[in-house]
Write a structure and sequence with these properties.
Length: 93
């Protein structure tokens, strides 16, 4: 019985982390912490594993256009300034 309970708790935790990963964009931008930068979290518009982890430190404006869902979501929540280090078309709405 103890083994079953441990398995249940383990699966419950793994499922929770999987759901959390599907519901958030984790965006890394240049920041004050060396080698880490700044980490930002924004809820996704729908549950999907696409674009869960995004390291934007070396992105160009072409990369932003390839991740249009992220750009649209950042614009919706008013956090498009997270991509200001890229320049180009990120400031346009």
């Amino acid at each position: 019985m103890k083994t079953f309970f441990r398995l249940f708790v383990f699966l419950f935790l793994v499922g929770g982390w999987a759901l959390a990963a599907a519901s958030l964009h984790v965006v890394r931008t240049p920041g004050m912490i060396p080698k880490l930068g700044a980490l930002h979290f924004v809820p996704k518009a729908d549950l999907t594993y696409a674009d869960t982890w995004l390291d934007t430190t070396k992105w160009t404006s072409a990369d932003v256009e390839n991740h249009a869902a992220l750009k649209r979501r950042l614009d919706e929540v008013g956090k498009l300034d997270w991509l200001k280090h890229i320049g180009g078309s990120t400031a346009s709405r």
